[in-house]
Amino acid sequence: MNAVLIALLVLPLLGAALMLAPIGDKRALRLGTTVTGGTLLLAVALAAGFDHGEPGRMQAVTDVSWIPALDVRLHLGVDGISLPLLVLTALLTFLCAVYSVKKLPEGPGGRAFTGLLLLLETGMLATFAVLDLVLFFLAFEIVLIPMYFLISRWGSGKKVAAANRFILYTLLGSAVMLLGFLLIGVQAGTFDMVKLADAHGAGLSHTTQLIAALAILVGLAVKAPAWPLHSWLPDAHTAAPTAGSVLLAGVMLKMGTYGLVRVLLPIVPDGTATYAPYLGAFAAVGIVYGSLACLALARTGAGGDLKRLIAYSSVGHMGFVLLGIASLTPTGVNGALFANIAHGLITGLLFFVVGAVKDRYGTADLDTLAGATGAALYGRAPRIGALLAFAAVASLGLPGLAGFWGELLAMYGAFDPAAGLSRPAFVTYLVLAGLGTLLTAAYLLVVVRRVCMGDPKQPAPVAELPDLRGYEAASWTPLAALTLVAGLWPALLLALSDPAVKHLLGSG
Amino acid sequence: MTTTHDLGQPVMTSLAVADPGGLIQSVDWVAVAPPLIAALAALAVLVADLFLPEARKRLLGWLSAAGLLAALAMLLPLLGGTRSTFCFTSGGCSYTADHFALAFQLLALGGALLTVLLSLHTVDAEKLPGGEYWFLLLSSACGAALLPAARDLATLVIALEVATLPAFALVALRRDGRGAESALKFFLSSVTATAVMLLGVSFVYAAAGTIQLQGIAEGLAHAPAQLKPLAEAGAVLTLVGFAFKTAAVPFHFWVPDTYVGAPLPVAGYLSVVGKAAGLSGLALVTTVAFRPYGHTWGLVLAVLAALTMTVGNAAALRQRAGTPHGAVRLLAWSSVGQAGYLLVPLAAAGYAGSADPLGATVAYALIYGLVNLGAFGVVALVGGSGRLEEFRGLASRNRWAAFALAFFLLCLAGLPPGVVGLFGKVVVFRAAVDAGLGWLAVVMAVNVVIALAYYLKWTALLFAPAAGPAAAPRRAPAPLSAALGLAACGAVVLSVAPQLVLQVVSGSLF
Question: For residue B373, which of B340, B403, B412, B346 has the smallest C-alpha distance?
Fold first, then answer.
C-alpha cells in the first residue's frame, strides 16, 4: 500500500522530468494524458486498498528520516480526510489533461504545458499525502511555480499582472505560515504532524499557540481564500486558462482548508479556539460578500465576466467551508470537508463549461453573450446549456446534488458550535450564511436565465455554435456523475471523514 | 622557541641540549597539506609561466585546477579527527585542522576551484595575463584556506592578508579605467581595515599577554581592571577589521563598485571566498578569543547582522532592469544581504555562550558559496553589458542556463525547489530563536520576504517572452559549462539530500 502512495507522488514527477526531453508537442500532450491516467489508476487503487473499516487511522504510511539535523522526516500517509482529496486531485488533473489534448490554450506549446501540469499535480498530491510540517510547506510552495506560469503564459487578458498578484499573495501568506510551523517545531521539538496532532497542543504554551495559530491561519486563509484576503482570486481565475482555473478552484483552494483541518485544529487547539469566532465572522462575511459580488456581476449592463463571477462564487462557497471549520464540531468539520469535495467537483465542471463557452464566443463577458434576450444555449447548444444549468443548480445547493450536504452540515455545525464558543455569535453567522444561500440561488438563476435561455433567433456574436464535442463530454461527464453520486449517497464520503475528524478533534 | 636556560651551567653545555630532537618542531604535514598544496601550486604556476610559450598558457589554468583539486583531496585524510601542529611547548597550537577549519577550507578551495573553471574562458576572452592571474588566485585561496585553521592572532592576520592582497591585484587585472578604480577603492578600504584591526590586535595582546586565541580568552577573563578598557577597545577594533572583510554594513560601500569593476569570476570569488575568509576569522576571534565578552559582541553582531541584511536587500530591491551591470550590482547587494544572515548565528553564539550555533553559519556559508558562484557563472555566460534586461527570455535562447540560474536564485531566495537554500535559512533562523534573539529572527524573516521580490523578479524575467527576435544561441565554452553543471548538480544533490551539508549543524566544530 505504501508503495502505491509513493508511486502516486513519483509518477507525475517523473512525467514532468520527462518533458525536459525533446519530444513533440502532440506526443507530449498524449504522454501527459497517459501519466495522469496512470496516476488516477494509482489513486483508485489506493482507495480500493484503503481499509474502510478504520478511516481514522493513518494508512499506507512511510516514515523515513530525511534531514536528521532538523528532524525532518519523509512521512507520508492517508486517512479518511486526505483520501477523497487525493482521488479528486488525480481525477481533475486527468480530466484537464484529456481536455487539453484537444483544446490547448494559446501559449508556448504543449510540452511545457504538460510538464507544468504534471509538476502541479505532484505538488497538489504531495500536499495531501505528507505528514510533516516542513514537507507540507514544501508541497504547498511547489504548486505555485507551475500555476504562476500556467496563468502568465497560457492565460488571457491581464495575465502577467494576475499571475504576479497570485504569487505575491500566496508567497507572503505561506512565508507567514512557515514562521508558524517553525515556531511549533522549535517549541515542540518535532515537525511530525501525527505526533503533534496526538499531543493536542500539549508542550506548546498558550502564547506559542496563539502566535503560531495566527500565522498559520493567515497563511492558509490566503490560499482558501477567506475574505478579506481573497482579492487575488478573481483576477487569477479570469486570466487563467481553463485547465488552470479548474485546478485552481478544484484543488488548490482545498489545500488551504485541508491545512486548517489537518494542521490548525489538532496541533494548536487552544489558539484555534481563540480565533474560531473571528474565522466564523470572516467566513459569514465572505459568504454574503461573494454572493453580492456575483449578483452585481450578473446584472444586465454590469459587464461581468462569467469566469470572474464563478471565482467570486468560490469565495462564497469556501466561506461555508470555513464556517464549518470554525464551528470546531465534528458535524461542522465533516460538512466542511464534504463541501470541499463538492465544490471541487461542481466548480471544476462550471469552469470547464464556461471555458468552453468562452472558447466558442471568444469572450466570457456576460452582456456580450446574452445580447438583448439571452444567449439561448438551450436552443443553440442544448447539451452545453443543460450541463451549465445542471452545474449551476448543483452549485446553489439543490438537495440531491453534491452542493447540498456540505453546506447544510456546515450550517448545522454553526447552529450548535463547540463548547466554549459563543452560540449567539455563531447563530448570527448561520443567519448570514442562510441569507447567502438565497443570494447564491438568485445570482445562479440569473446566470442560467441570461446564458441558457433567450431567443435563439436573435443576432448572436458567433454564427456557428457547435454543441458538446466528444472530448468535452469525456472530460465533463465524470464530474457531473460524481456530483450526482455524492448528492444521493453522501455517506460514501462522510463515513470516510467522520472517524478521522473525530480523531483529529480529540473526541473519538 | 623557548629553551630552558640553566644559569649554573657553562655556556658550551647550554647549547648542547640533552634531547636535540625536542627542539626541532615536528610538523604534521598532512594537517597543513591543503593550504600548502595551494601555495605550491601557485609557485609552480608562476615558474611555469616563465617557460611556457604563449600558445600554451592555457595549460596554466588547468594546472591551477589540478592543484586545487589535489588540495581538496588532502582534506579527506583529515576527516578522522582534530589534528594540530606548530604547537608551543607551553601548550596551544597555531594551526588546528578541526571540523570548523575543514568546512571553511572546503569552501575556500572548492570556491577557488569553481572560480578557476569559470575563469578559464574569461582569461582568454578578456586577454588577462594568465600567469599572474592564476598565481594571484591560488595565493589568495591559500590564504583563505589557512585562515580558518589559524589559532593565534599573528597567523590569523597574516592569513587574512595573504587572502586579500592578491585580490586587489586580481580586481585590477582588467585593464580598463573601471578595473583600476575598483581596485583602488577596494585597496584603500581594505588597508584601512587592516590597520584598524592591527591596532586592535596590539591592544588585545597588551591586555591579555598572549596572541594565542585560547590564551586570550583566559587572559581577558583574568585581566586586571585597569586594562579592561584597553582590552574592550582592542576587541571592538578587531571586530571592525573583520566586519570590513565580510562587507557588513556600514563597512560595505566598496562592494558594488568593486564587483562591477572586477572580472566576473573574481567578483564571484570575492563574494564567496573573500567573504568566507573574513567570516571564519570573525568566528574564531569572537567565539574563541573574546568569549568572556560574549554578550557585548553578541549584541554588536546582532545589530550588524540586522543592518547588513536590511541595507543589502533594500539596495538590491532598488536595482532597475535597465542599469548597466545591473545583474552584478544586484548580486553584489544580495551578497551584502546574505552576509547579514551569515552573521546571525555568530551573534547567537555570543548570547548562547558556546560555539554551537556556529554550525548554522558554516552550513549556510557552504550553501551560499555554491549557489552564488553558480549565479555569477551564469551571468558570465550570458555576458553582454550585464543589464538585467538582457536576461529577458533567456529560457528560449539557452534553456539550461536559464534553468540553472533560476535554480540558483531560488536557492538564494530560499524558495522551493531551492530546498537547500530554504533549510539553510531555517537553521540560521533556529539558531537565532534558540539563543533568545526573537527580534533578530523577525528582522530576518522580513528580509527573506523582501529578498523574494527581487530574486523572483529576476527569475520571472528569465522565462518572460523574449522582447526582440531571438539571437542565435552562442555555444557556451566547455569549462564554463562544466563549472555551471558542477554547481547546479551540487545544488540539486544538496536539495534532495540536505543532510549532507546540514550535518555540520548538529556535529561538533572545534
Answer: B412
Bridge partner list, A74: A64
What interhelical angle do A133-142 and A144-154 show, nearest 10?
10
Nearest residue on chain A to B462, alpha-carbon basis: A149
Contact call for B423 and A171, based on CB within 8 A: no
Helix (H, G, I), strand (E, B) or coil at A67: strand
Cell of B57: 598558457
Q: Do B445 and A179 touch (CB under 8 A)?
A: yes
Secondary structure class of A66 (helix, strand, coil)? strand
Spatial CA neighbour of B451 closest among B286, B336, B323: B336
End-to-end CA distance of chain B: 26
- Cα–Cα distances (Å) from A175 to A142, B345, B452, in that order, read 13, 21, 10
Burial (CB count within 10 angstroms: exposed 0-12, middle 13-18, buried 19+), residue A464: exposed
Helix (H) or strand (E) holding A414: helix A402-415
Q: Report the length, in residues, of chain A.
A: 508
Q: Which residues of B touch A (CB under 8 A)?
A: 415-417, 419, 422-423, 426-427, 429-430, 433-434, 445, 448-449, 452, 456, 460, 463, 465, 498-499, 502-503, 505-506
Whether the complex's predicted ipTM surpasses the cut of 0.90: no
Question: Which residue, chain included where needed, has cell 471541487?
Answer: A344
B-chain CB neighbours of A149 within 8 Å are 463
Nearest residue on chain A to B433, alpha-carbon basis: A186
A175·B498 Cβ contact <8 A: no
Q: Cell 433567450 maps to which residue?
A: A454
Do residue B427 and residue A69 have CB atoms under 8 angstroms apart?
Answer: yes
Domain residue spans in chain B?
Answer: 37-75+93-506
Distance from CA of B453 to the nearest CA of A (A): 8
Burial of A205 (0-12, 13-18, 19+ CB in 10 A): exposed
CA atoms of A335 and A498, how far apart (whole Å): 10
> How does pLDDT run along chain A (508 residues), one tens digit per residue?
789 999 999 999 999 999 888 888 888 899 999 999 999 999 999 999 988 888 888 888 999 988 888 888 899 999 999 999 999 999 999 999 999 888 888 878 888 899 999 999 999 999 999 999 999 999 988 998 899 999 988 888 888 899 988 988 888 888 889 989 988 988 888 899 999 988 888 888 899 899 999 999 999 999 888 888 888 999 999 899 989 999 999 899 999 999 999 999 999 999 999 999 999 999 999 999 999 999 999 888 888 889 999 999 999 999 999 999 999 999 999 999 999 999 999 999 999 999 888 888 888 888 888 877 777 788 888 898 999 999 999 998 888 898 899 999 999 999 999 888 889 999 999 999 999 999 999 999 999 988 888 887 877 777 778 888 888 888 899 999 999 999 999 988 899 899 899 888 876 4
Cβ(A167)–Cβ(A148) under 8 Å? yes
Give the C-alpha separation, A348 to A95, whole Å.
10
Residues of chain A positioned with their CB less than 8 A from the CB of B417: 142, 145
Rounded to whole angstroms, how far apart are CA atoms B147 and B157? 8
Bridge partners of A73, per DSSP, are A65
Identity of the residue numbered A360: R
Query: E-assigned strands of A54-102?
Result: 59-67, 72-78
For residues B343 and B247, is the Cβ–Cβ distance under 8 A?
A: no
Q: Which residues of A touch B427 (CB under 8 A)?
A: 69-70
Q: List the beta strands (DSSP E) in A8-71.
A: 59-67
H/E segment holding residue B171: helix B153-172
**All cell numbers assigned to A2:** 505504501
DSSP H helices in A224-329: 232-239, 242-247, 253-259, 265-267, 269-298, 306-326
Q: Which of A70, A138, A141 is most worth mutating to test chain B (most B CB atoms within 10 A of its CB)?
A: A70
